[in-house]
Every structure is written in C-alpha cells, then in structure tokens.
C-alpha cells in the first residue's frame, strides 16, 4: 500500500487532498496543528472506512515536525508521497503589515515546507523513489498589493522547489509545484472582505475575489490534481489549477514590469474597468 503525508489538513485543500488519497487506497497521514478541532473530519473518515490517520504537527516547529515524522516512519515505514500544503495568508500593504506578519507567513509557507521536506528526503534518496508536491499558488508568479507578503513566501517556495527538483531527479524523486487560482476556501473568502487600509488595493482585490467566488471553484479540483500528479509518472514541474490560474499567469506575462506597476497604481475607475474588460468580473 502506498503512503502519503499531507500537511495542513484541517480544512480546504488539505482536507480534500487527504480524502482524495484515502479514497484512492493510500494510507494517509493527515497532519494539522490542532486535531481536537477535526471532529467532522474524523467522522467522515469513519463513515467511509478510509485509512487516514490524523496526527498533530506544527510545521513552524522543528521539534514538532521531527517528532511527528519520526513517529510515523518508525511505526509505518517510509513515506511515498509528501504533500506540503500547510499555509497561511496575511494581506495588507507593506507599510501596514507588521514585521511579525511577514515573519509568520515565511515561517509557515516557506520554512514549514523545508522542515517537512528535509525530514523525509534522506529516506526517499536512500530508497531511490518518492514524490514531493508543494502547493503554491498563482501568487508564486504574480505579486500584487495587498498580497505582497504572501506572494513573497510563494515566490520563495517556487524557487527552492525548482532547485530541489534538479537535485533529486538523479535519485528518482519527483518534485511538483501546484499553482491554484482563486479557490473557494476560507483563505480566499477572508481576502474577499474589504479592509480599512489607507491604500486602495485591499478593497480592489477584495472585490476581485468576491466577484470570482460568485462562481466558486471547489478545493476538490486541486485535490484531484495533486492525486493525479502523485499517481502519474510525469516529471512536469509546474501545474496551474483552476479556470483562472493560467489566464492570470498569461495576463501578467503579457505586460512588462513597468506596465504591471502602472496598472496596479492606476486610479480606481481605470483599474476596475481593466478587470471588467479582461476577466468579465465586476470587482466594484
């Protein structure tokens, strides 16, 4: 039986990914900071008789990651698939976000992924097999206010994943980056709430997310893609997911840096009109 360890499974993409792997016959180790809040998840596991085991792990902590992964591998053996999904979001202007906000985003989204990867990589390298799937986002390609801090963490994740893929391919270990667009998760809905920023960008992007979520893309779509990657033999590195993911990436690529800055610095009327014309979304 194949095994998978998935981080950040308390809700959203992580939870749906754990269920997808469990339904596909994997023995799944679903990790989260607070398993005590996973009652509904536990009931679903039981009702479907899935081989999913919930474990407490805080990816921000060296000790927590080491203890959890050591316990799992000592009891159950090597892990075939690692899905680094745990992530947090903070939004706001560079001026208004605190340094603690910047640090916490990097601690979870970037260093958390590294902790888990480094804990499992020696065994994968020894066994000459394995698959590491890192959940990034379109924001790993596109930096827009008020998501500068969040994008920075995902840019970093993309960069180190690309280097990692080069290092481990000779050991038959596949690395993939999953890049969702706007997905109907709590994180996306939190962003859709207008803030009280002195800058206009928070309200604008709040409107963009709210408009997009009127026709929501479910997290199951991302979960299915992650499972597909794990089951495949593909060495493809990047995988945009969702109807708006590749269009967003192409949209940014169609502009040079100065045009991108100018568009985001435009007045409200011009900005909203551009979103309407480009994506047929009324973000007002």
Give keywords.
SDR_oxidoreductase; SDR_fam; oxidoreductase; single chain; alpha/beta; oxidoreductase activity; 284 residues; Rossmann fold; 7 strands; globular
What CATH architecture do you see?
3-Layer(aba) Sandwich
The largest β sheet comes out as: 7 strands, parallel
CATH fold descriptor: Rossmann fold
Low-confidence stretches: none
**Oligomer description:** single chain
Summed up, the helix count is 11
What is the CATH first-level class name? Alpha Beta
Number of strands: 7
Task: Tell me the name of the CATH homologous superfamily.
Answer: NAD(P)-binding Rossmann-like Domain
Mean model confidence by pLDDT: 92
Which structural class best describes the helix and strand composition? alpha/beta
* β-strand amount: 5-15%
What is the count of structural domains? 1
Please give the order of strands in the largest beta sheet.
3-2-1-4-5-6-7
Family: Belongs to the short-chain dehydrogenases/reductases (SDR) family.
GO molecular function: oxidoreductase activity
Keywords: Oxidoreductase
Protein name: Short-subunit dehydrogenase
Task: Give the topology.
Layout: E1 3-6, H1 12-23, E2 27-32, H2 39-48, E3 52-56, H3 62-76, E4 81-84, H4 99-127, E5 130-135, H5 148-168, E6 173-180, H6 186-191, H7 201-212, H8 219-231, E7 238-241, H9 245-253, H10 257-264, H11 268-279
Parallel strand pairs: 1-2, 1-4, 2-3, 4-5, 5-6, 6-7
